[in-house]
Model the fold of this input.
Amino acid sequence: MNRLIPTIMILLIFIMMPLKVVYAGKFFAYGKVYLGAEHVFKAISPQCEPGPRSNTLTSNLGVVINIYQSNNKKFEINTRYTHHSCVLNRDRNSYDAGGLELGYTFWKRK
Done:
């Protein structure tokens, strides 16, 4: 299963590249990394061991690679890889996840 997601992402890239001739838009318009922290509203984050420091904060770190973006930038298809873990305490259920994301932008300020 660990090799299935990257294989699917690579296959999608090679399948979609020839479609550039047919569909107007940009392929691989951007790539970005992100780092964030989230506060869970339950007693303990599922990623944290109970401990003396805050065990309600979950961190996430990841990479987003755009596959396709329409010319008007309203529709996009991206791949995403995210690592989740506890911010301050020891990790209990740290995990990595990869996936495919479809996005539609309703409005954007200039």
About this structure: Residues 4-104 form one domain. Residues 4-16 form the longest helix (13 residues). The chain is about 10% helix and 45% strand.
